Amino acid sequence: MYKLAIDAMSGDLGSEIVVKACLSFIQSHLDVELYVTGKKEELKSLENVNNIHIVDAQDIVGMNDGIMSVRRKKESSMVKAVIMANDGQVDGVVSCGSTGAFYTSAMLFLKRIEGVEKSCLMAVLPTYNNKGVCMLDVGANAENTAEQLNDFAIMGNIYAKNIRHVSKPKVALLNIGTEEKKGNEVHQHTYQLLSQNENIHFVGNIEGREILLGDVDVIVTDGFSGNIALKTCEGTASLVMKMIKESMLSSTRGKLGALLAKPSLYSLKDKFDYKSVGGALMMGFTKAVVKAHGASDEIAFENAMDLAYQMVKQDVVSQMKEGLEIK
Amino acid sequence: MYKLAIDAMSGDLGSEIVVKACLSFIQSHLDVELYVTGKKEELKSLENVNNIHIVDAQDIVGMNDGIMSVRRKKESSMVKAVIMANDGQVDGVVSCGSTGAFYTSAMLFLKRIEGVEKSCLMAVLPTYNNKGVCMLDVGANAENTAEQLNDFAIMGNIYAKNIRHVSKPKVALLNIGTEEKKGNEVHQHTYQLLSQNENIHFVGNIEGREILLGDVDVIVTDGFSGNIALKTCEGTASLVMKMIKESMLSSTRGKLGALLAKPSLYSLKDKFDYKSVGGALMMGFTKAVVKAHGASDEIAFENAMDLAYQMVKQDVVSQMKEGLEIK
């Protein structure tokens, strides 16, 4: 049986959607045991359900708590779930709490894979060609060395292969030009390391304007640039959508057009709703760590649970260990 | 009389649009003399026009020439125009050649303002609130020190005041979070310098998702992050537009909607066409240096000329000298 710890309390919407997601998930995943952390009085409907265990945790890491609050919140549903993973009681953890707090919990209470100097955050972005692209690091680190970026490439590559089923993932380095000598010393050195890395298919540098095309499968970047790029994508996409809506609604003719085009526009809105992509994955830890989005509905949360399940079942962490050893 | 050197040859569309722009510009700007560099045989229609001087230059820096080609192309229209500025024959230069080559020409052949360690590229981006925002550096440097970022803030501030007529420009630092301690040492140190700089109105850090809102007037960033941010904005905006178009055209109902909404959508497309914004400005040099976009039409080129004229007339360079002295 695969074992997952599920933090039921830390999301914006409370425990109810997590409870529903767990009940639905367990029916379609007969090889999984869930350890649901949270206030036991809120988890009554999970009592006596096969393969679900309630782990009482009376404290909560709120969305507005500082990220370092996790240090003293060892009785919280979030930290308890992470510690269970570290103790080997479960193989993976899912939470829809604050990304910062959840990542910090993992940093503090969960071992990293040996040889990984820095863990990082990975986001999967929707792309024009619908393939999606993994980008890492998107903000765990304020700066990185070339060796760390090489580690990120290895982890992203294994993820793309095993979870996204890309047989030979194209790995690119986010940079300010396509030529080998672009960027500062770190980027130039990273370019060398990635070129020499026989375990990945490095296709060179990629610029900001190509991120969402989907021509590559994994984009490697330091946490600073990656965070700027991710948030700029999010901000620009949502602003352009908003402006299109407002622009159309500003004239009668436009309004009628908007009404007719509504189904087309909505389908696109969903595609570019970065929130629906499920938030960030925490890479480099000895267990699968998946962050469901804070405003997740039960379907999104169940998707996040399934992702953790896939990572555990495909044994992605062991493969990363191996990949990082032979680098 | 204000004097501008105009590179007539380096754009994608050849000398014709530049010639037209010069003829139109000179009629509405009676206090300007133009020195137009290029193949004299292509500039015949400028002969004997009041206040226009043809400067024969038989070589061309093509859009696909390497940026270092300018080193040996001293007889090109681009380099000749830049050298005229350095020699004091003109007060400003306008070119619609390759940004990289034009910037390199300025680096090689034009003096920097004393005390400016690094020159940089500034872009003016369209914003949601129509105010626009200046961002610098957008890619001249692969990394920058805090002192250099402080210089960029001073230059951006003076530009926003004098050319964009913002009485008290809000200056922000591009970072991965709003808190003072975000980012690496350079960003943290820059935050301190900007906070202590009494000649600017520093409003703190800004994240990638807020760039296009227009809540601030000047965004200061190192050239690496700035280039990633600019290109990610461009790429995302154009891709979302493209996807909306395709999504609407994929159904009959959507097609009808698109037809009706066309005027609204077109007005927005223009707004977000970064090319129409006129390309990048080169900051930190002793003369006004304006890059018109390579695919400029004559109106865009004339706008770029007017920008150089405004910079010269408002004596922006002198004010930058002063601002950088008292920093």
Instruction: Note the total helix count of chain A.
Output: 9
Radius of gyration of chain A equals 20 Å
Oligomeric state of the chains in view: homodimer
Beta-strand percentage range of chain A? 15-25%
Structural class of chain A: alpha/beta
User: In angstroms, what separates the terminal alpha carbons of chain A?
Assistant: 31 Å
The shape of chain A, in one word, is globular
Which series of helices and strands of chain A comes N to C?
EHEEHEHEEHEHEEHHEEHH
Which runs of chain A of at least 5 residues are low in confidence (pLDDT < 50)? none
Helix content of chain A: 40-55%
Largest interface: A-B, 58 and 58 residues
Strands of chain A, count: 11
For the largest beta-sheet of chain A, the strand count, sense and barrel status come to: 11 strands, mixed
The order of strands across the largest sheet of chain A is: 3-2-1-4-11-10-5-6-9-7-8
Q: Let me know the average pLDDT of chain A.
A: 91
Model description:
Chain A is globular. Chain A has 327 residues and is of the alpha/beta class. Chain A has helices spanning 15-28, 77-86, 99-109, 146-162, 185-196, 223-249, 252-271, 298-313, 316-325, and strands spanning 2-7, 32-38, 52-56, 92-95, 120-125, 133-136, 170-174, 201-206, 218-220, 280-283, 288-291. Chain A is built from nine helices and eleven strands. An eleven-stranded mixed sheet of chain A has the order 3-2-1-4-11-10-5-6-9-7-8, with helices on both faces. In chain A, strand 10 and strand 11 (288-291) form a beta hairpin. At the A-B interface, helix 6 and helix 7 of A face helix 6 and helix 7 of B.
